[in-house]
Please model this.
Amino acid sequence: MSRLTVNVLVVLVAGLVYASLGFLSSRTSVNGGLGWDGPVYAAMVTDHDTQRGSAINKLVPAFPLAAAIPYAVTGNILASFTVVNIVAFVLLVLAAFVILDAQSAPLVVKLCAALTLAVLGLPTITAAFNPGQPDLLGVALVALAVASCETTGGLLVGATQVAATLASPVGIIAPLYGIWRSWRLRQRTPHALVVFLPALLAWVLVQVWARGGPRGLLDLIRPSRVSADTALWDEFAFILFGVYFLITSLGGLTILLWSCPKWIVDAVREKPELLALVVPVLLFIATAGLDVPRMIPFLLPFWLVVIGAWGRGQTAPLLVPVGLATVLTLLTQHPWVRMNELNYFVDWFPYSVHAARVSGVTMSDADLVGIWRWRVLIAAGGLAAFATWRHRSTLWVNP
Model:
């Protein structure tokens, strides 16, 4: 069976798993199932009201534009959001496979990555529960833009780069990565670099429009604004939750990588353009405030490249670490839990619950600690288990 056939089959199966989990986990009852920000994007689609909502809502024009296509057929905005999310997930898995294939990752690593993406809480299952949000589409289009740099050239690369910058402000990492990669590979002709220019211009134009002009864009770097945006990082609970989501951002696969940071460093040394996929995202994460959990999934393209490079470079059998990573993915993402408003915030936005920032969702700190203590211990135990495997595999390879 050819690699293309295997990839297509796995992508389809992963899509079915994602859709099934979304169906089983139910959907939010907020705003008629549209979710917390859904009415804003619905107005953009149905009434062409582009002034609805805040600057944050205006910074993701790709989501309402994409939803307008199924809406023109179905006339149902909730169904349109759901269709966009399913298509976005399929694109995300497809992009993941392209990225992993470019790193010559073993099949077992690709299968583990597909399963991980299918059960990943952020942004996949949460998007199924709260369909009126652009996070999944944003991550998918950014990953697709990164994948296009690995395989093609010309108009397709340019189109995916523009799509990434229209899908999220974090999409700026895609053209930055492409430019740096082309430069490292000595593809420095004007033709090779100009393909990224439309995406950069699109990013600037969207930023200026959404923020009410150049002054609004410059306001982002005002010291008092930056200080306010990063203030929550002074709190231990915020740091703890943030670190947990960073360590588990690709389920057990990132726990595996964090168990030996040298693997991450080696991948960056081999491909220094990976810094373009991680440094800007970390800046967005640092200034995201309560939305930190929604920013962390934009590290997925970086992690996919790194885990692919890790798999390619291993000489010891991979069944044990990949199997353990799969178990840890299930334990940290707990896809069997039926989603509701309480679980949505407790599981994926716990600091907002701790700080009583969510109206209608309350839980005592004792109960919250009781839930999260085990999750932190699972992640810590996973790091220890991978460290033990690494030590034994070293002895196996070099007795």
